[in-house]
Amino acid sequence: MRAFLKLLFRNGLAAMGAVVLAAILILVLITPLLPLQNPDSTATADRFQKPFSEGHPLGTDHLGRDLLSRLLHGTRLSLAVGIAAALIAATIGSAIGIIAGYFGGRTDNIIMRGVDMLMAFPYILLALAIVAALGPGLMNALIAVAAVNVPFFARNIRGITVGLAGREFIDAARLAGMGHTRIILTELLPNVLPVIIIAMSTTVGWMILETAGLSFLGLGSQPPQADLGSMLGEARSALISHPHTSVVPGIMIFLIVMSINLLGDGVRDALDPRLRSGALSRASATTLVDRKSDIPAATDDLLAIQELETQFHVGKRNYRAVGGVSLAVKPGECLGVIGESGSGKSVTALSVMGLVASPPGVITGGAVRFQGEDLIGTPYETLRQKRGDRVAYIFQDPLSTMHPLYRVGQQLAEAIRSHHRISKVDARARAIQLLKDVRIPNAESRVDNFPHEMSGGMRQRVGIAMALANEPEVIIADEPTTALDVTVQAQILSLLDDLRRDRGLAIIFITHDFGVVAQLCDRVAVMYAGRIVEEGPTQAVLGAPAHPYTKRLIACVPELGGGRRELAAIPGLPPVVDDLPPGCAFATRCDKAQEACQAGDVALKGAAPRAVRCLYPEEAV
Amino acid sequence: MPALKVENLAKTFPLKKPLFGPAPPGVRAVRPMSFKVETGETLGVVGESGCGKSTLARMLVGLLEPSEGRIEIEGRALDNADPAEFGKLIQYVFQDPQSSLNPRKTIRQVMEAPLKRLHGLGRTKRDSRISEIFASVNLREEFLDRYPHEFSGGQAQRIGIARALAASPRIIILDEPVSALDVSVQAQVLNLLAGLKAQFGLTYLFITHDLAVVEAVSDRIVVLYFGAVVEIGRAESIFANPRHPYTKLLADSAPVVGRPLTAPEQRGSELPDPLNPPPGCAFAGRCPRATDLCRAQVPELKDMGEDQLAACHHPLQD
User: Fold this and answer.
1) InterPro entries under this entry (chain B) (predicted)?
2) A559 chain-B contacts, CB cut-off 8 A
C-alpha cells in the first residue's frame, strides 16, 4: 500500500488531481456544518447578484438563491450520484463479465450478445429512454447512468476473466474439489479486483458528467433540489446576461471530472503490474555504460568479451548479473556457454551489442571487441550498423521475436534492406535463397507465410535465415532449440553446424543442455552466478570436469541409455546476484568447500585453453 | 487389479460449423487408446508437442470430458467428468509451478482447499495433515503464510506436489513436472518424487518430452504420436530396441554426450495436418520404411515380444 501511494504521487498530474479532489471532498463533507444559507430559500429581490456581493460570495441565481450554498449542496449530490452509479455499474457489470468469462461457451455467447445490444444504442439515447420509461428524478437518472455503463465493465472484466479462467490455478482449484461459486469468489475475484478498481477510477468522472447531462435536460434532479447539472440547466437562459450563474457550476464540474480522471489514470498506472516493473518506461537504444575500471587492451580474436561487468540497478539494489566475464571466438569456431537460469549467460550475450534494457541495465566494466574495436560506449549509429550485419542473434522463441503481422519474406527483406541498398525485388529473391539455405521446403511459397502459419521448427529456421541475412561474422544463439521438439532440435543443430563449417561463422551458443554442447561446440564455458567457473575444450570439460559445480551439474542430468536410477542432486539454490557471498559463490552448496573458499576472490586459472575457478579442483588443469 | 485402466479413451474437439455446408469432422486430439497402469508403477508418456499428451492427462483427472471410452481407477469406473469426484483418487501436478498457484492466496489457503473440500477435515486435523505433508516434501512450515511469488521454481513445484498429496490420491499425473526447472533443481524434484512414491504407495503417470528423464524414472513407457499410441515397452529397452521407426527417430534425435551430431531425419519432411489427417499411418510421411500399405491402412498395436507393443506394419528388428 505504501509502495502504491509512493508510486502514485511520483506522477505529478495524479498528485495534483488527488489534492484537488481531496479538497472538494472535504468541502462537501463539511457542507452541512458550514454557516451557509438555505440553498432553496428564494429572494426574488436579490436575483442575479454578482459574485463577491455582500452576503453572497458567489452571487445569486435567477430566484435570488445563494450560489455558494447551492454549489456545495449540488456538488455533494452530484458526487454521491456519480459514485453510487459507478459502484452499481461496476458490481453488476463485473458480475456479468466474470460469469460470462468463466463459464464461456453458450453462456458467454448469450450474455455478451445481450451486452452488445445494449452497446448498440448511443448511450445518451439509452439513458433518455430509461428515464422516459421510469419518469424523471435523480434516482431514475442514477439507474439510467448505471445501466448505460454496465456493458463497459462487463466487456472489460470478461476479457480479463477469460485469460484467468484458462490458467492452471483454476484447474488446480477444481481438482481440489471447489465448486464454481467458490472458484469465482475466492480464485477469480481477488485477481480481477484491481482491474475493477482501475476501470472504476477512470469512469467515475464520466458518470458524474452523464448524470449532470441528464439533470441539465431536466430529467435528473427536480426543482428546487440543486445538483450541478440542474444548476447549469437553470442558468442556461441567463448565459449571456449573467454568465456567472453558469460559470460557477461549470468550473466545479470541470474541476471534479479533471481531477478524477488525472487521479484515475495515476491509479491505473500505479496498479498495472507491467508499468510497475518499468516495462513501459522506454528503454534507451543502447545499454547505458558507466565504466570506472581500465579498459582491457585489444586482442586478435574475431569477437572478444573482456572482463565484462553488467549490472541491473533496481531501486537501491545492485544485481551483478555479469561479474567479469571473458570469452573469445575465432572464425569457424563454436563456443558453448552453459549455465542455469540466473547465471548471467543471456545478459552476457545481450551486452555484446548493447541490447540489455536500460534502465535498469548498466555496463559497468570491461570491453567487447569486434575485430579489435571496442563496441561498448560506441555511438548508437555505429552499433546499429553492426547489429544484425556483423554480429547477429538467434533467440529462443521465434514466435515472439518475429512481427506477427508481416510475412516472413517481408521481415527477411527488411533485415537485408536496413543494411544494404538493394531493390525490393532483389531483396525478395535473396529472402527466398536464404529460406532455401536453411532448408525450408517450397521456399518460393513459404516466403509469403505469416509467422503463425509455420511450425515451431520452421519459424526457428526463419530466425536463423534472418540472422544469416547479411552474412555476419558472428552469430550469438541464445537457447535457440530449447522450445523445440527433439526431432526438430536435431535438424536445427545440424543446420547450424553445417553453416559454420561452410561459411566460417563463429557461433556463441548459449544453452543449459550438456548433450547439445557436446555435439555442437568446440569449446565450452560454464557460468555460475555471473562468472565463468570453468572453461576449456568440450571433450576435456565434459570428460574430466575440474570445478565441483560442473561435475555435479553433469551428474544431475540423466543421460539416455542409463536406465532407471537415482539422480545426484545439488542441494540448495543458486545465490541471488544482488547479495553475493565473498569468494566462491558455489561454496555454500559444495561438499568440498573449506574456509579459504569464502575468504576472498577465487581466480580463474589453469593452462590455456583449460581454466577453473576453484581452490580445490576435481582435476588439475 | 490395475491402479488405472483406460479403454478406448478418445477426445475429438469439434470444429465450428460453417454458415453453409456440413460441420467438419473435428480434430482428433486423442485417438482411441487403451492401456493399464499397475499399482506402484510409473508409466512414462513421451511425445512431441501436439501429440495429445496433455489432452490425455486432462481427461484422466476429469478436467476434460472424453468423447468416448472409459476410465477405471482401482476397478471403479469414473464416468462422470467431475473433478471433485476424481480428486480423491487421482491428482495432477502442473508443468508451470508458478501459474498453478493463485498469486493472491497464501500457501496455507492453497493447501487447505483439498483437505476442506475433498475430505472435510476440521481445523486441527488440517493443520497436522499439512505439517505431515510439508515434512515429506522437505518444505519448512514457515512458508505456509507466504505468497507464491516469493518462491523459486523448485520450491513452487514442491508446493504443487504437496497440494496434490493433500488430496491423498492413489494416482498422480505428473505433466512435465520438471521441464520448467533448472537442471540442478530438476534432479532434486525427481528424487523427491521417487521417495514419495515409495512412502505413500503411489502410482505415477509421468508425462514429458525429455527421453532421458522419462527413462530414468519410469517402469514402462508409452510413446505417443499424433494422438495415438505407437509403442509401449519397458523403459530400459524401448529406446535401445525400438520397434516403431518413430521411437527410433526420437531416440536418435536426443542429444547425447559423445555421439556425433547427425540429423537423423531427411530434410523437408512435413508433420501430419490435424485438420486433414492422412488416411493410413500418421508417421508414414516421415518414415523411411513407409509403403503403400502404410499410407492406406492405420496399423494396429501388435505384440512384439518382451512386453513390447508397436503400431507398425513394418516394425524394426534387432
Assistant:
1) AAA+_ATPase, ABC_transp_ATP-bind, ABC_transporter-like_ATP-bd, ABC_transporter-like_CS, Oligopep_ABC_C, P-loop_NTPase
2) 212, 256-257
